[in-house]
Amino acid sequence: MFRGIIDLKSLWPIGAIFIILLILPPILPRFYTYILALIFVTSLLAMSLNLVLGHGMIFQFHHGVFYGVGAYTVALMLSKTSLPMWVGFVAGPIAAAVVGLLIGWFCVRLTRLYFGMLQISLGSLIWAIVFRWYSFTGGDDGIHGIPMPPFISSLNSAYYFILIVLVICMIVLYLILKSPFGSTLEAIRDNPQRCEAVGVNVRRHQLKAIVIATFFAGIAGVLFVVLERSVFPDLLFWVLSLEIFIMCLLGGWFTFAGPILGAAIMVALRTFVGIFTEYWTLILGVILILLIFFLPEGVMGYVLEILKPQAREVAERRGE
Amino acid sequence: MLQVNAVDKSFGDFMAVCQANLSVGNGELVAVIGPNGAGKTTLFNLITGQLWPDRGKIIFKGEDISGLLPYQICKRGIARSFQIVNIFPRLTVFGNIQVAVLSQQRRSSTLFAPAQNLAMEETNSILESVGLLDKAANIAGSLSHGDQKILEIAIALGNEPDLLILDEPTAGMSPEETAATLKLIKNLASTQGLTILFCEHDMDVVFSIAQSIMVMHQGRTLIQGKPEEVREHREVQEAYLGGE
Fold it and tell me: What is the ipTM of this complex?
């Protein structure tokens, strides 16, 4: 399954980061453990969007809805039913994917900007329902104090749970991108007309990609509930969707790990600049302007661009 | 194999294709000629489903394919190249052809198998037959125009078509590249027994390799026949060959 697509040499820095992340929680203050876990959750969310955005050029403008649906599904099942806990955890991503299928089914009929606009309208509809349906969703108060199974009830255990789920999801997403499905998706991104001409049902392929992406957004939603034990309508609001979109662009939407970097930057900005001023988005705005002018491929895209010629040099030197 | 019967297509008031007729037999090498704006590309777009005809029938292997979508027509055995380079610029040369091969093998939706290990033999043999094997790892967008036009044909070959449609395969090529491309087309027709329908500006090219020629003028079919018949046709001489 992994034959030929994972280079063991390039794996060790990733392994090193993973081990550092494993030993950090007992050392770090609680607050930083929490921020790291939040970055993990947000990274998965951004990566799920980037599957369709960066690799499929599908303008999924309202990705937050699926995150919210996943979170609300698990929250409602854990707080309102007596079903086993794991049922809720599995139902979250599935519910997100089902909503993704429904909204996507309408949206893939349109292209680019119109796709995005229809998605914002349909997504906002779901937000409005969640926001208003007090008796069921708690309305704008949300749902708080959601019970968690004991093995993830402390912050540190939640941290480890989230980290492990994130790593598994990353591996699966990577495999998907390197599969025929992923390479065909990238071909559609490059040239949908030609793809149709070589026999690919472009719309159906895009719809499948949306369902997969929304499934992973649903997993991110479940992880959010594990971390926060509460849900609120802001999870489905378009502002959050825009933030996820920016994370992908910021980190580098044509790279695999770019969205993780973007998510880390965004969460860090909101947390640490947010301490000093509530206008942290002002700083974000300036960063975005600089980004558009100087790093159009995102931070990760820029880093890879710098690394590439060096790698080639090294290879050449070895050759001599 | 392919029968186009009295097909019309208009864009607003402009009749791009009007009463076009074309017949392509099994294993034939057929050319469509005509001045700029005669409707050649529109006719090809009608056959491969990028456009739908207003009237008329397009019969392929005994089945009316007008009104089908491009991917459905491709699955029935017609693959095409485009006049204006229409490739996957960010993918490698190998990846460009592999997309078509995977689609042909109905593996486009396979999720958990590394794509780079699949369809290698098929893709490499196509790369070899068109002479792009040494550029397999290059990013397609960085190829020269001539190579991109060759890649156009190679992508179409990835679908293992019964009928290959080439829209001005040598447009914008240098004389050397043109000669090489013609050799390639002839080869495909003779060694692989492919049925090929193409359109082309260069008269010498067409008359040297085509077995049957269809002449279009202002969207209409003037005549279809053997090269000698076409050459002697009075109307064709007036309209197109300039009474040579």
Answer: 0.87
